[in-house]
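JOB MANIFEST
job_type = single_chain_structure
chain_count = 1
residues = 252
[input]
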Amino acid sequence: MFDLTHKVALVTGGNGGIGLGMAEGLAKAGAQVVVAARNARKSKDAVERLRALGSDSFSIEVDVTDEAAVKAMFEQLVDRCGRLDILVNNAGTTVRKPVDQLSLDEWHRVMDTNLTSAFLCCRSAHPHLQAAGGGKIINIGSMMSIFGAPYAPAYGASKGGIVQLTRAMATSWAADRIQVNAVLPGWIATELTDGARAQVAGLNERVVARTPVGRWGQPGDLAGIAVFLASAASDFVTGTAIPVDGGYSISG
């Protein structure tokens, strides 16, 4: 039920953090994992880790905010692999400023990287998933699609948009046997959240105190949900937004 042998998965931002944690889970389940990212050096290291797990992995250097580049990426992937079965939209960034201090360029950078890229990738992936007889799309949202944070207006707006985009596509593409779901990571120890811990006073202590499991998450904590949502085990699950947060979102 969870076997991904002969499946081809594309993970944007898959060369580090949550993306790599999910990619490793998919690789362990048997998928051929393609890493899509801008940093070629990081991607090379990620591919080596995935190949060590038995995946015939490779990387594509791409800016997922560029419409033409995204279209070309999927054509290159299908030309090399023959098919596409799984798409993980994980590419993301943030700017930690309140609205009154946020420039329009910063707003666009966050929205384009986090939300528009997912739209572009999903739109380009759709015909290839159809050709494969169906498939899985996993969009990476955030706790910020549930909670408000004064220092993350653009990030929160983009991740709220991810949840609504997920629901729209889930209803639109159900007839194509494509399941579309979102994952809402809690506080996960990554390069992105290392910046938050450095910039937001007391954040580390507040997160640990509120999280019932008593720790920050690790990228590997996202591997299991990735395999579930990418596999036949979730064929009747679509349009959901699933927190993976150690209980943070249910704690008072």
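[summary]
Residues 8-250 form a domain with the Rossmann fold fold (CATH 3.40.50.720).
The chain has eight helices and seven strands.
exit_status = 0
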